[in-house]
Every structure is written in C-alpha cells, then in structure tokens.
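Hello Y.,

Per our agreement to keep a running log of every chain we model this quarter, I'm adding this entry. I've kept the format consistent with earlier entries: sequence first, then predicted structure.
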Amino acid sequence: MACRLEGKVAIITGAAGGIGEATARIFTSHGALVVIADIKDELGARVVASIGPEKCQYKRCDVRNEKEVEELVDFTIKAYGRLDIMFSNAGMSEKATSTILDMDFDVLDNVMAVNFRGVAATIKHAARAMVASGARGSIICTASIAVTKGGFGPAAYTASKLAVVGLVRSAAAELGRHGIRANCISPGGVATPLTMEYFGLTQSQVEERAETGMVLKGGGTLKASDIGEAALFLASDESAFVTGQNLIVDGGRTVGATPAAPAAQVK
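Predicted structure for the entry above:
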C-alpha cells in the first residue's frame, strides 16, 4: 500500500473515538505521525496504545479554550518538528429532542463554543504554525449534512456547522497565498458513540436510518472509516488544488429522493 502521508505530521481533535479515531488509524497507516487530541484521557491513551506510541501521541485539549489549542500546536511542533495537517473534528450537539421553541441558550453557547469557536481556534493556530514554517498545509474541518437543509439536525447544531462552512471558505481565501488549503467534510449518518448518545439511538438504528436515505445502494453502511478516507484525500497531495470545498460523504442522501426503478423493457 502506498504511504500517501509519508513524512507528514497531523493533529486530529476529537480523536479518542468515532471519526477522529478512525482517521488517526488511517493517517498513521499511510505514514503520518499523529497527535490525538481530546478531553477523554483514558480513551485517548487506549487509542495511542492500540496504534503504537511510535506513530502517535495523546495531548489533552479542550477546543473551547484557545490557550489549550495553542499549546496543542506547540506540543506537536516540539514533538515532531512540524505541522502539515490539522483535522479539526471535535464536536457536540444538543439533544435531538431540542426545538427552536424551547432552545436553552446555555446549551447553544456550549455548542457554538465547541463546534465553531473551537474550530476557529484550531484554524488560527494551525495556520500560524504552517505560515511560520512555510508548510503547504492542509486544514480539514468536520461540518455536517445538516448544513444542506433544515431538519437534518437540531437548530443549534445545524447553525454551528453552517458557520464552520463559512469560516472554512474564508480561511481558504485568506490562506491560499501561503499555500495552505482549507476544506470541510460533511458526513452523513455515521453511528459514532457521540451520535448514538445525543440522538438516543442504537448503532443499528443510526445505520438503518442513514442507509434508508441513501440513493447509492449496494455499498453497505456508512462507517467512520469512510469519512477518514475522505480526510485522507484532503490531507494528501492528491488534493493539491482542492480548497474552500465542502466534501459531502453521505451516499447521496442529500441529492434527493431515490428515483423509482425503471419499468422492465418490453421486448
């Protein structure tokens, strides 16, 4: 297997489980050195032990705290000498039962602090390090298919992810002169522990709902590793001229309704 990230150094936030963990495994399998950032210390340590401490390290980071994000970037550069990839993946949601009519503004503030302010901090400090070193870096941020239309997620979550898309487009426009790319990935329904917790669904329920809405059939269930493969593409030199984009990975769920099967041709 070709090592598509050989010699590159990456930070992945929210990497103690779910999409972040799957991406860390894919990145390291392709030659990258990875710093796994999260607030779940025990799970993060387990991921490092599973992948191998020669390939990755864990650093606690609450993305709501800009100082901790700055320290995360500094830690990475001290550990590995450079930073090439920032995958800003940490996120949260309010409960699926939340509505605009009973919105809790403390919850709204926390969702925005993690999903938007935290992403802004990771972009800011990763980009500063990349500019200082002259790295032609790649910044990737997790958005959501909720940004495509109302109803795919609770209001606060949807608003925060739509803000991320706008932020990334602005970052791409500003950072292009430095050779730095910025893109989003918008996953469809992936049965991560976070998704199951916030939406009160089992793994099979999440997968069933996601698969039912897909127009692309025959490929099985959308997995965290599928999002990780999309991140691999955006992190690698194969996407050297891709910037300012929102890559939707949802099996065509947001394309539209599944068309009816064509009638059998009469011979």
